[in-house]
Amino acid sequence: MGRYLLRRLLQLVPVFIGTTFLIYWLVWAVPGDPFAGKCGERRCPDQYIAFMTEKYHLDQNVFVQYGNYMKNLLQGDFGQTFSQRDIGDIIATAYPNTLKLALVALVIEAVIGLGAGVLTGLRRNGFLDNLVLISTLFLIALPVFVVGFVLQWLLGVQWQIIKPTVSSEMRWSELIVPGFVLGSASVAYIARVARTSIAENRRADYVRTAIAKGLPMRRVVGVHLLRNSLIPVVTLLGTDLGALMGGAIVTEGIFGINGIGRAVYRAIVTKESATVVGIVVVLVLVYLVMNLVVDLLYAALDPRIRYE
Amino acid sequence: MRVSKRATSAIALSAAAALVATGCSSGDGDGDAAASKDGAITVHGVQPENPLVPSNTTETGGGKVVDWLWTGLVEYPNDGGAPRNALAESIDTKDSKVFTIKIKKGTKFHDGTEVKSKNFVDAWNWAAYSPNGAQNGSFFADIQGFDQTYTSDPDGPDGPQKAPAPKADKLSGLKVVDEQTFEVTLAAPTAVFPTKLGYSAFMPLPDVFFTQKPEEFGKKPIGNGPVKFVSWEDNVVIKLTRFDDYNLRDKMKIKDVDVKLYQDETAAYADLLANNLDFMEVVPTSALAGDKWKADLGDRGLSTVTPSTALISFPIYDKRFQNPKLRRAISLAINRQDISDKIFFGTRKPADSWANPLTPGAKPGNCTACKFDVATAKTLLAEAGGFTGEMVFYYNADSSHKGWMDAVAQQVKTNLGINARAEGVPTFAVFRQAVNAHTMKGPYRAAWQQDYPDVENWVNPLYVTGGSSNDGLYSNPEVDALAKQASSAPSLEASHEAFSKAVEKVDQDVPSIPIYFYGQQSGHSEKIKKLELNNVGEVDITSVEL
Fold it and tell me: Which DSSP string corresponds to A63-114?
């Protein structure tokens, strides 16, 4: 177990370097001069461009720029944006917001998805099963921005139950609707995966044995069946946290949340490699760590799985 | 000029004088003084591109906040009329070359220090010193000694050579006389100089600015305007509050102003509809279709005209577009009324003059090329020898320009038989890069909002050889000579008269074609009982009553 963990952690290093360089290079290769659109319909004064080019070493080639960037990064310095804000500050304010939103989405997803999955998996082909099948299909088919705008307009503007956008305090209660929007497609997938998994294991030998032993149904389902059926669901949920954080860009835009999606979008448009990489570096770490956590959870859920 | 990246959201001025928001409970439209006194409003904003230093702010996001935080020597009245003294007690000149500027006594910066003449002189010297890289540095080009403090890179910013260090770090034309007086000597007589003084580049800076890094100052700016800075949370909110020691004309009636920084204008619009946002300058284009905004907002909506013009510029460096007859033919083939009615639902007015008619000194209806006259257009095209190949009209696709640019191309195609189409360039940055580098391969979209209200600002930057926004490289020695003569005229009246002659020459050459004058559709919450828009269409926060 310890060796396995160490090996996995060491694997993170090349993945980390590879992804950061690729992203740095990609943003660098995006066409467009960062200062071409910065002064409106008038070209920026050469003096200003020269000043900025010198300040940000933009006259160096991409490898040197990346090297400089990594050197500073390892010292904990994320650098500055072209508007001279510290990228470290942007990350420090945007990440907690997105993480909060993603966690709310994840909880909603787990509760609704798993609940619907268990119920329908146990009673297949009933009315409830069909209802869930159709409604999940509906959710999968709807793009996130449609769900987002419709809920915002209906709940925020028409009925005024919620505020249309999230305030800067980011209260948990304000995040329920955006969280649902963000997690809506995943709810459907979780429900379907859970349903199939439960339905399959329902006919497994150990379930029959448990029932034959005379265990109460609650215990059969809650302990034996659910635990064994959770592996695919946990995989989905674990990797989804990263996807939710990276994919929050649309939801954040609709509900005016100051998260990483917005920050990355701005940075790509203004060609700020340093900002994009800074944010994505942390996102890459989230993905890698979540993958590791999921793998470790397998072992906890199923004792037959062991890591050497 | 301040046109935001989106370029649709920039713009504005209410010619319709003071706009009183009606439809409120109190019949006379006046606010409740008690509610106003400690009142707070939240207005729409976008994250400023740069730290808030006036001479380094050129875009609308930061420009709006800078305008509120500072009061300049002169101010532009909300009705778009001629500028009047604000911080200046008097601006005297005999020859439009040497100006003696006296400032009012006893006004303060937000840190409590008094505004003195040296605060102006130091601020201007800082901006005009090219190694400081101020975006508005070139605004000081009129002043004597500018060529000594502001040097250019001999081979452009991309070339290997660096700009030589300036010979001087102070403008020789600026002289402090006493604490309230300073003298400005220009390189040549310039009648419009006092008008320029209300632009943000000319704001005074407190002593503390010169003791810290500009970007540090810009994160916690100290101005001298009716509101002072409280805090700025990136991408979230900029908080401002009333400056109680303010003693000039435009005092605040309410207390707090939060500028909520939105990424997405539809999110802001939803907030506006739910009364969660108190003012939005420009409702999203999507709300204009079918007059949806009118139905949504009712009497909370405002519609104004603004002193900004949308143009299509010709790349005159491209041989195919060097014949003025061809350019005129294209201009005459465009039905501007149709575009205004069908694409913009009447929210934009068809252009019929070169300078926006709301600008002092501009002559309305002086664009003879702006008529819709297919017969003449066809004759002119034939005289010009026709046009072979494809004519592509370019625009930046990250903002809503597709509709009207497609319409323009289609009209040219139908009316002149030219193989024309419109093509979007993905982002404003890529688009401007090609425009700046003079590599456009067809006519392209442009827009112009005046920096300061005078016709001069519609001629010198756009149509004079080497003008700062003469991107199409149009050059006519006659226009240059007339504009030069107009700029150095002894009085504004004489200057305006001379500029109208220059414009007549421009009208013959058609270096670009005005398409429409911008309008602005804004909205406010039920809470606001009274508000005015300033000369660029931003809300005048000192006029707001609750």
Answer: HHHHHHHHHHHHTT---B-TT--BHHHHHHHHHHHHHHHHHHHHHHHHHHHH
